[in-house]
Description:
GO molecular function, one term: hydrolase activity
CATH architecture of the largest domain: 3-Layer(aba) Sandwich
Signal peptide: 1-24
Domain AB hydrolase-1: 36-246
CATH superfamily of the largest domain: Alpha/Beta hydrolase fold, catalytic domain
Protein name: Hydrolase
Keywords: Hydrolase, Signal
Amino acid sequence: xxxxxxxxxxxxxxxxxxxxxxxxxxxxxxxxxxxxxxxxxxxxxxxxxxxxxxxxxxxxxxxxxxxxxxxxxxxxxxxxxxxxxxxxxxxxxxxxxxxxxxxxxxxxxxxxxxxxxxxxxxxxxxxxxxxxxxxxxxxxxxxxxxxxxxxxxxxxxxxxxxxxxxxxxxxxxxxxxxxxxxxxxxxxxxxxxxxxxxxxxxxxxxxxxxxxxxxxxxxxxxxxxxxxxxxxxxxxxxxxxxxxxxxxxxxxxxxxxxx
Length: 259
């Protein structure tokens, strides 16, 4: 009889402990967003995210790459929102260069938990990409305009101005395959900056010629973003894929997994 009593007491203790753990888990919000959506910038396409995507997927993240057309800011935001809405849960939204302008607007989607800017524009309400770029002029000189209002980088200077720290063959292919961007994308104003209500992270590319690094620092400070710097050309997400993935993972781990 005494033995049966002891077994019952042990079982009750174990059950109580299990209930306590379950209660604590239900009271403490789970952290760690697992869905990452990445947005490319001007003169590039989504393939540049391949190395970052591989690292994130290996670490257990789901990665979706937006292939926005760069025909207008409204179109690019719409394409990004479509990918966000297809995710099964909360999202970390990442943008490079002009992609920062896109996520600044698209990041208002309720599914977006955090924003990560990689050498990216982060306009305030009433600002646009062109206005910001001209406020602290960059070193780039090779941007050309087509007769119908689209912009591209002269392939002769693409590597030096855009991708100086990637292999020469890769930079040449990027120049040959660059996506032209519309004037509308550059000049349309942001109406509601998501960084004012969502936590933000920023990577400054200290050797950037396409966006002045001082402007990057200024935007990051204005957002109160958690900021790191890398000694990189404009395409930091390609030349510094490990650091980029690490920053994204830090953002993902810092926000609630449930909304």
